[in-house]
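USER:
I wish I could look at a protein chain and see how it folds. I am handing you a single protein, as its sequence and its fold in token form. As I understand it, each token names a local backbone shape. I hope you can help me see how the letters and the tokens relate. The protein I mean follows directly.
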Amino acid sequence: EVQLVESGGGLVQVGGSLRLSCAVSGFRGEDYGIGWYRQAPGKEREGITCIYSDDGSTWYADSVKGRFTISRDNAKNTVYLQMNSLKPEDTAVYYCATLTGAYWGQGTQVTVSS
């Protein structure tokens, strides 16, 4: 059974940091590109970063560039999202998913308080 399970969300103050994890099971995460997405209340889901399977290259949305870092640990079959310098506008439910869109995690809430 294919599963993606996010963890690491929570409440943090402005300027703080969190690290989200996306644990992959049922397939080798390194064989698939994985993306992180978020959805704030009343807004559409947006893609914020991804890591590609072929060469491990990454992409970031302008809204998180320079503050967020995506990485993967193939031995643990886990993809991480390190989030620094958090802002109130980063408050959202964060999801990881395969870039094919076939598999999604259940989401983890991140709340940044001012």
Summary: The mean pLDDT is 95. Strands lie at 3-7, 10-13, 18-25, 34-39, 46-51, 58-60, 68-73, 78-83, 92-98, 108-113. The two ends are 40 Å apart (CA to CA).
